[in-house]
Amino acid sequence: MAPLTSLVATLALLSSTAFALPPLQRSASSVLPLNEVGPGLSPPPPGASPVFIALGVGTQNYTCNATSLTFGSNVALADLYDVTKFINANTKNSITNLYLAASTTPIKNPLQLQHIGKHYFTKTVSGNSPNFDFTESGKGFLQAKKVANVAAPADAWAGLKGQAYGAVDWLYLVDNGLEVSRHLGSVYRVETAGGKPPASCKAGEQAFVPYAAEYWFYK
Question: Where would one find the signal peptide in this protein (predicted)?
Answer without folding.
Answer: 1-20
